[in-house]
Write a structure and sequence with these properties.
CATH topology of one domain: Glycosyltransferase
CATH architecture of one domain: Alpha/alpha barrel
CATH class of one domain: Mainly Alpha
Low-confidence stretches: none
Strand content: 15-25%
Helix content: 25-40%
Number of helices: 15
Number of strands: 31
Radius of gyration: 27 Å
Largest sheet: 12 strands, mixed
Distance between the termini: 61 Å
């Protein structure tokens, strides 16, 4: 019933499982009724056949159901799953979240979920136990969009390739006809081999879907318990309508059904620079494809909740989707997953332990610090202290874990600026020294904890964390700051940017370090070298310094690794590497930080320092380059903020909507003859000259 997909959402099953409630009143008939349920494996049970990333299982699929009936006379009756229920294997004869799904329509039992069905051959259920049940938080996953093929090629007899035009998280849906027992196999992929066949080499193989026909007319089918990230579908064992054929079933229709979290849209963006519109779409599709029950890294190879993405991309995401309820689920997952020693692992839920050659993949401060940073960001966006009070103990425990790894107020471990641009294949940080970013986060965490303690009236904690922050700052500068060169570490863009953004640079040196950073970008021909961790801070530091002109120059090109380069290589979703390497994921949202700048830099939507919940709004647009026109909306917790501006020769014209119960300061771009304007809620139109 309903339109949910992969419901309930996944979580840390060793401790809890989600449940979903439905109002079934309108589904009931007078008299007898039957409840039928199909169970899938998803992350609870992952079979060993085919591709799998995970290494364990929590048991076989289980069901607990309760029907609560309230009669007109006020009495209440509960019907609960017990040993009187019956079970039987379904037509789904293989199901794996990683490996795909197989369905034999000949195993269907007509009327199995209706009254008067003869279940004499069905077995009594096995009564068992399961994890604690928790009500589902966040919006459900749904089919949100459908794509038809834009191109099709016959590979061989009974073997077809389809290009759906968009790399996205999804499932194939087919309409076929043929003989009883005819078998179709579908292979999804985001890249192709040289011979136009599905290339799953670097995204997890084999992953495929099998459908066995029952015959007797058109049959429609799609998988229910698996998905993949794909743009292409290779279908074996079919011919198309109109093609001479007396051997294979006929494929009448095939589609890509895009699935994602159904959180409502909260923003729109368009501007006169077509490349930036394409970049916006590129990043948005990576967000779409990785916003399910958790924020995953990719929709195929791993589908894991790598935590650094949550805080680094949170601002970008919340300008596009209302993620407050979803974020509550994310933080609940973190609290549930956190270990007794305070560790927040790099992936949540931790379905597999990321040991590899050392513990940096499992325990990296830039990743685990989501447990401290993200509640603070949610408070900033909403003014809701509940995000802090609910998570304060978790935040403190994680900081205690970091303190246990402390070496004279330094943290000399972690993954640092993952996937930065150096001379080697991307992966481990090549340009930023070990410990610099980890210690920077250590300081940032301490500052946030001090602010949080103050808001929650915990004076002793406030003072303690402030003192720790000061000691970390001193140790950080002694270790990493070169006063002669006015740079941090070896002068990488990530090193200088993160030090500036997190407030680690002493006031007297801020301009020198900023100039060092800008000089490096200019020396490199307006290219960037930052990776997963450093790139957001590079953009934020430049934006805050009113140097969006540099951001424009770095990102309005396609000849060097970056967003434009990805588009030039044919990407339709953001890739894992700046180089669009075919050997890694080509649908990854960890590098999508320019999305935030579209709203906070180009449109200039922000808040007055020290305020929260968009009650005191700053509108400070930064028009740059050849951009002559911009239209942006953002639905904040106070209501919709709208910024439309355009440039006509020497005139700057702007329309602004400020929501009810908010006030705003409108700061006009440099070079225009107009002082800042203070306004209340309402619609405003200004036209200023140079």
């Amino acid at each position: 019933m309903g339109d949910h997909f992969l419901d309930p959402g996944w979580t840390q099953y060793s401790k809890e499982a989600r449940y979903v409630s439905f109002d079934i009143t309108n589904y009931l008939n007078i008299g007898l009724n039957t409840l039928g349920v199909v169970l899938g494996n998803v992350f609870y049970y992952i079979p060993g056949e085919r591709y799998r990333k995970m290494t364990g299982a929590y048991g076989y699929p289980k069901l607990i159901a309760r029907i609560k009936i309230e009669y007109n006379n006020g009495s209440v009756e509960d019907i609960v799953t017990d040993n009187t229920w019956k079970t039987y294997p379904s037509p789904i004869f293989f199901s794996s979240i990683y490996g795909g799904e197989d369905y034999d329509a000949n195993l269907e039992q007509k009327g199995w979920d209706e009254i008067n069905f003869n279940d004499a051959n069905w077995k009594n259920v096995v009564v068992t136990s399961g994890p604690m049940l928790v009500a589902q938080r966040g919006e459900p996953i749904k089919v949100m969009q459908k794509f038809s093929p834009v191109k099709q090629i016959k590979i061989a007899k009974g073997d077809w390739f389809f290009d759906l035009g968009q790399n996205a998280s999804g499932i194939p849906a087919i309409e076929v006809s043929g003989k009883k027992g005819d078998t179709i196999r579908i292979f999804p992929s985001e890249l192709l081999t040289d011979s136009n066949t599905a290339n799953q080499k670097f995204t997890g193989r084999p992953h495929f879907y099998t459908y066995v026909l029952k015959g007797g007319g058109k049959e429609v089918w799609h998988p229910k318990f698996s998905y993949y990230g794909f743009r292409y579908l290779q279908v074996k064992g079919v011919e198309l309508e109109g093609v001479a054929n007396n051997e294979f079933p006929v494929l009448h229709k095939i589609e890509e059904w895009h699935i994602r979290n159904s959180a409502r849209s909260s923003g729109t963006f368009s501007n006169s620079n077509e490349l930036f519109n394409q970049i916006h779409k590129l990043i948005l599709w990576a967000i779409n494809s990785n916003m399910v029950s958790v924020f995953t890294d990719c929709p195929h190879r791993e589908r894991l909740g790598w935590q650094e993405q949550v805080h680094l991309m949170g601002n970008a995401i919340q300008h596009n989707y209302d993620i407050f309820s979803f974020s509550g689920k994310i933080l609940h997952d973190i609290r549930t997953q956190q270990y007794s020693d305070g560790l927040i692992p790099s992936t949540v839920p931790e379905f597999t332990v990321m040991h590899f050659t050392d513990d940096n993949f499992r325990d990296s401060p830039e990743w685990g610090s989501t447990g401290i940073i993200f509640p603070w960001y949610l408070y900033e966006w909403s003014s809701n202290k509940r995000f802090l009070s609910e998570n304060y103990e978790m935040m403190k425990q994680y900081f205690g874990h970091l303190q246990s790894k402390d070496s004279s107020f330094l943290l000399m471990f972690g993954l640092s600026d993952w996937y930065d641009i150096g001379s080697e294949r991307p992966g481990f940080s090549q340009l930023t020294p070990l410990g610099l970013t980890a210690t920077a986060y250590y300081y940032y965490d301490a500052v946030i904890l001090s602010k949080t303690a103050k808001l929650l009236g915990k004076t002793t904690d406030e003072e303690r964390y402030q003192l720790i922050a000061e000691k970390i700052k001193t140790a950080f500068n002694n270790k990493f700051y070169n006063r002669d060169k006015r740079q941090y570490g070896n002068g990488s863009q990530a090193s200088n940017a993160i030090s500036l953004y997190m407030g680690l640079v002493e006031k007297e040196y801020e301009n020198a370090v900023l100039n060092n950073l800008i000089n490096d970008i200019e020396y490199e021909g307006y290219t960037f070298t930052t990776g997963d961790i450093g790139h957001r801070y590079l953009l934020k530091v430049l934006e805050q310094a009113d140097r969006s002109d540099i951001i424009y120059k770095m990102n309005s090109r396609s000849d060097v690794p970056g967003y434009g380069y990805l588009l030039k290589q044919g990407a339709t979703a953001l890739t894992e590497s700046w180089q669009a390497l075919p050997t890694v994921s080509n649908n990854h949202f960890m590098l999508g930080h320019l999305m935030e700048w579209f709203y906070t830099g180009l449109a200039g939507i922000g808040q007055r320092e020290g305020t929260t919940g968009f009650e005191n709004i700053i509108i400070k647009p930064q028009p740059v380059g050849d951009i002559q026109k911009l239209n942006v909306t953002y639905h904040s917790v106070k209501g919709e903020i709208k910024v439309n501006w355009k440039i006509n020769k020497s005139t700057f014209e702007i329309e602004v909507d400020i929501p009810v119960n908010s006030k705003a300061e409108i700061i006009f771009p440099k070079g225009y003859n107009k002082q800042p304007v203070q306004v209340g809620s309402g619609k405003y139109h200004f036209k200023v000259n140079k």
